Amino acid sequence: MGEPINSFPSGLLPDETSPEWLNKGDNAWQLTAAAMVGLQSVPGLVILYGSMVKKKWAVNSAFMALYAFASVLLCWVMWAHQLSFGDKFTGIMGKPNVAVTQKYLLEKQYDKMIPVADYVFYQFAFAAITVILLGGSLLGRMNFYAWMLFVPLWLTFSYTVGAYTIWDKGFLSRHIIDFSGGYVIHLSSGVAGFTAAYWVGPRNPSDREHFPPNNIIHMMAGAGFLWMGWSGFNGGSPLAANEITALAVLNTHLCTATSLLVWMFFDLIFHSKSSVIGGVQGMMTGLVCITPAAGVVDTWAAMFMGVLAGSVPWYTMMILHKKSAFFQRVDDTLGVFHTHAVAGVLGGLSSGMFAKPNLIRKFYKTEHSESQQGPGLLYSIVNANEVVYAKDGFKQMGYQILGALFIAAWNVVVTSLICIFVSRIVDLKMHEDDLDIGDDAIHGEEAYALWGDGQRHPPLRSLTPKFPAFFRRV
Length: 474
Hints:
Low-confidence stretches: 1-8, 469-474
Protein name: Ammonium transporter
Helix content: 55-70%
Membrane topology: Multi-pass membrane protein
Family: Belongs to the ammonia transporter channel (TC 1.A.11.2) family.
CATH class: Mainly Alpha
Oligomer: single chain
CATH superfamily: Ammonium transporter AmtB like domains
GO cellular component, one term: plasma membrane
GO molecular function: ammonium channel activity
């Protein structure tokens, strides 16, 4: 008989092809989930932002999202991932370090059966979409060069603190229920976006009064990337392809569909028309609301949260915003405060109310975990005969409120300091004449050639100070 054929490449033995701890199914799902979250930003939010604004702002809005995605990735692997998930440094931040070495990236991710590289990329996609969502408050007037400085600064000093505090080793990490980022991602982006919008200032009056989307069909396509990509957004949080993952994905879509329909019905009742933009907003609030609770609540609770997500933010955006002098003073272009901050708080508080004990144990209380997340308040009331158990539910709701207050306060303060710092280097807002022109003045490009055979008129001179002004002003 001939020599046995070696079926392994490069002479590797079977036990050398992959480590014993690696679960290839979990690994494949995690890489898929991370890619889905990335697709929510590029092309999802790139298309959504580029379509949801006036034609003259389509290029600038889409490019703000694209720049942020690329910038965050480099910052993430160079220092921000370790600030968020590295060795303990303070109660709110890890030690800065790189996440690019083979020794680090090919290790096992804590008690999961995937390599650290999966987790680094997955968490990068989370960080990137947070910054891009924040940018939705600033469309149509922020100086692009100010945005270039703002993105890495906000990622470093704001996002990493929320991630470390709630998801890793921070002082709230053992107590808060935040399955996929209702607080870390959505509350922070909503509050920070609103705060930055205050410092940047409003659009010009004509834009603020009349700001129709330039392409509603493309807007819906971008929204579709967000909705379908949310399967990875929430489904990736268990870092495994298990039963919690399946429940999280189902709950995500149930809450979202319910919220969209509720928002649509409110539009029909009070405005006699079902708005496509309203439907997209209702979709968004449903996705945001379920995020902190996706894998720890029953399906009936997910649908009830959809009712809350489609009604409360609808009221704050469509009624309260128009009546409140406070909201009118701040020009939040896409209403990110309502769709993300309000919906994120709703989701966080609903997590404290509806989190089911056995699901909490499955997700948080693993063999190596010291987490102390309690049952939802509803279940503690149902089991009120067990005194300690009842107290746990009220305690959990207290932690959910504390977490919301901390994230909101930190983002108001840090975002304000960053905006003040950037304003000392380059103008936060475009020049008034450039605001009238839009994309062609800022980038020398326009989204659509709508006359002749694609010819363009002579380039318009931009009056907004360019990035070299950074050096002159320093």
